[in-house]
């Protein structure tokens, strides 16, 4: 599962610090490729979410010095291992449903 950062909401000034990150909007993405040769197909599932960041403490990293990798690690730490596993399980179920549907939508006319 990959986490991509969409945007970061920040307060321009807070407690004497500039550009304090408040919320991170992100997308969790999972892909699975199945088949061989000419029959290869990649399925993907994703979910969008956001998470509130705690107030800065200790070493404050300036907004301009943040990297996507840093922010992804913050998100993973805040979500926790168990919830990350649940997210991945849900995305896997979504992909499995795409590969072998058990529910169909539509109308008979």
Short description:
This protein has 109 residues and is α+β, with helices and mostly antiparallel strands.
Share in helix: 25-40%
- Count of helix runs: 2
- Residue runs with pLDDT of under 50 for 5 or more positions: none
Structural category: alpha+beta
- Distance from first to last alpha carbon: 39 Å
Mean pLDDT reading: 94
Q: Specify the biggest β-sheet.
A: 3 strands, antiparallel
Task: Give the key terms.
single chain; 109 residues; alpha+beta; 3-stranded antiparallel beta sheet; 3 strands
Describe this structure in words.
This protein has one domain. It has helices at 68-79, 81-99; strands at residues 2-14, 17-34, 41-52. The protein has 109 residues and is of the alpha+beta class. The N and C termini lie far apart (39 Å). Strands 1-2-3 form a 3-stranded antiparallel β-sheet.
Which helices and strands occur, and which strands form pairs?
Layout: E1 2-14, E2 17-34, E3 41-52, H1 68-79, H2 81-99
Antiparallel strand pairs: 1-2, 2-3
